[in-house]
Sequence to fold (443 residues):
Amino acid sequence: MADRAWVATRKGLIELRRRAGAWAVERASFVGDPVSMLLPPDASGRMFAALNLGHFGVKLHASDDAGASWREVAAPAFGPQPEGAPGPAWKVSMVWALERQGDAVYAGTLPGALFRSTDAAQTWQLDEVLWNRPERPTWSGGGYDTPGIHSISPLADGTVLVGVSCAGAWITRDAGASWAQTAHGMRAEYMPPEQAFDPDVQDPHAIARCAAQPDVLWCQHHNGIFRSTNGGARWEELHAPLSSFGFAVAAHPADPRTAWFVPAVKDQCRVPVARALAVNRTRDGGASFETLRAGLPQLDCYDLVYRHGLAVDEEGVGLMMGSTTGGVWASDDAGDHWTALPARLPPVYAVRFG
Amino acid sequence: MPHVAFTSQLQRFTETPEIDTSAATLREALAAAFEANPRLRHYVLDEQGHLRQHVVIFIGGRRVVDRIGLSDALAAQDRVYVLQALTGG
Fold:
């Protein structure tokens, strides 16, 4: 079971350690600064943290010793914006996603762009094929003024799938030489009826892949939960108890039938149903769900778990989630029981094991 | 000779040289400061070379006008202050 986790918050990066079965704060870095996303250490101890300084812009820091010391490296940035270029300004306003595949590090940003670095963030390359897609200027924002890439799922064979709020999901199977829309089957309640199944308008809040069976993908969408068993070629809608609205999803790394979601009332009321925090878990591919509550606050609870706020460890047993009001809960039994971290943290943007 | 100073808040992140410069425009004055510390550029300007949304600059007591081209003229006695705007929280 994982014994280290990281919490990216509105006011710093918090490292947690699990000792004698209990999680506790080990270290805080970048105290006072918003940390929008992190990439946990690799085998060598190299990790990254993306800062979103309110006044001074997006910054990226790297550590070669698993967070003991940090140095600033290049942040993803656009080249000069051509005169009259349609769509949002070519200015990175947030790093929303960080992932790695082999030696490559990927960054998803607001506005909706994918960047890749193969030199440990000394330089970044914009995926120009995706950026130059003719549909891209029509993408809309979801929760932010500009569209953004919040989910990146790269595979070793050159496949990369990204989730875009709001432009569905996009996939390349040739390492970025070409990209195609891959949100077919998702349904948007917030659109005129005739456009409900238009893949280009879908708002996937988060997309997670089963590591052992990578054709299985789970999506917590703006108004529903969807699952694909064919690598995103087609999505089927699932129906969870309490609510199908939420932001977070965690996919079991080995069992393609198991995933976890954290429901909230609806988009106009982003609080737990009946103000009682719960986790929905399916173990049969979404045919049925269990609602898990043991150890979670069940009274006067306003905690919302944001899209990167729920994590599962490599064994599929350890879970951790953090909320927009700074609550953190961990489970050692796949969600059956939860224990609150004995700390009040700032609003949580992301939780990751590693 | 115009004098350029940066908010002390920036010193948390990078060095902020105070310089006297013969620059005739804000753009030239900032370029001189960035020459002293190249990392400073991306804290003050975005990747398009525009003044960051939540950074404000005062020139001789006047708020900067041209936030994109940075063409505001400098007079010999001007003191240029690069500050964080309250709009940024």
Remarks:
- Residues 28 and 44 of chain B are 14 Å apart (CA to CA).
